[in-house]
Write a structure and sequence with these properties.
Layout: H1 4-13, E1 15-18, H2 24-39, E2 46-47, E3 57-61, H3 68-76, H4 79-86, E4 92-102, E5 110-113, E6 121-122, E7 125-131, E8 142-144, E9 186-187, E10 196-200, E11 205-207, E12 216-224, E13 229-230, H5 244-247, E14 261-263
This protein binds 2-oxoglutaric acid (AKG).
2-oxoglutaric acid binds near residues 98, 110, 127, 218 and 220.
Length: about 270
């Protein structure tokens, strides 16, 4: 499904693009699921843009439980097999889905960040960022290639940069990539519906606003490698998994119905 050079590129860069990862029928299914989420936001949903933004940045999380279309794509498309192959792993467990829309004209950037410090996960994981719309290069996420091999970086709230997770000073800060972009290997691609950007939970990434005349609808599917372990945090992770610490010990594999094995496809 992916050749050795793509697997090597993922290990080296922490990010690769796979064209045509989902087909037309799968995209139609995902679009239905996406619309269900937008029409019925969960208690986890957030408005990630300011009230005076001419567009809107809306996010929701972990919707596969009540959105069968998202479950279908997360568990029964090529995505989990691709995720396992790129992690050079024999299996991939589904972690969660993250639904994002930047409406036409949204100014709000997604700031530079790594995903893993927000999570309850130690060990490797990978995301597949899949757009439902054409995304011109200038509206597409940016990735600092190789940053997944560096340290964990301080997670901050997107709108007001608060350190709500790790204590202030306890992790390295994200450098100011935008002021000296030539010092960093920054990758960005034009994307079409069904293409997927696969990136490590530790790859530093950001995304611009969306100054175009159509929305940018996206679902990011997150998968865990077999070496991923549940990391109980003394704070609310993002997303939060309420009650999980009563059912899954600290330091154990994610062998729990909330995190189904997605590849290989379980028999029966
Ligand atoms: O699409 C975006 O604006 C940000 C996506 C992102 O940060 C992610 O999928 O982890």
């Amino acid at each position: 499904m992916v050749d050795d050079s793509t697997i090597e590129a993922f290990a080296r860069d922490g990010v690769v693009v796979v064209r045509g990862a989902l087909g037309a029928d799968e995209l139609a299914t995902l679009a239905r699921g996406f619309q269900h989420v937008v029409n019925h936001p969960s208690e986890r949903a957030v408005e990630a843009s300011r009230s005076d933004d001419p567009g809107r940045f809306f996010e929701d999380f972990v919707r596969w439980h009540d959105t069968p279309e998202i479950e279908q794509i997360a568990l029964r498309s090529k995505l989990p097999k691709l995720a396992a192959a790129l992690m050079d792993s024999t299996s991939a467990r589904f972690y969660h889905d993250h639904v994002l829309v930047k409406e036409a004209g949204t100014c709000q950037r997604t700031p530079w960040h790594q995903d893993q410090p927000y999570y309850n996960v130690d060990g490797a994981g990978i995301s597949a960022w899949v757009p439902l719309d054409e995304v011109p290069r200038k509206g597409s996420p940016e990735f600092w290639a190789g940053s997944h091999r560096g340290p964990w970086r301080m997670p901050r709230t997107f709108l007001d940069e608060q350190a709500k997770w790790f204590p202030e000073g306890s992790l390295a800060e994200i450098p100011d990539l935008d002021s000296d972009r030539s010092d960093y290997d920054i990758r960005q691609w034009q994307m079409s519906p069904g293409d997927a950007i696969f990136f490590s939970f530790l790859t530093v990434h950001s995304a611009p606003g969306f100054p175009f005349d159509h929305p940018r609808r996206v679902v990011s599917f997150r998968y865990l490698s077999p070496d991923a372990r549940h990391a109980v945090r003394p704070w609310k992770t993002s997303p939060e998994f309420p009650g999980l610490t009563d059912e899954l010990d600290d330091g154990v594999p994610f062998d729990h119905p909330n995190f189904p094995l997605a590849w290989p496809v379980p028999v029966g």
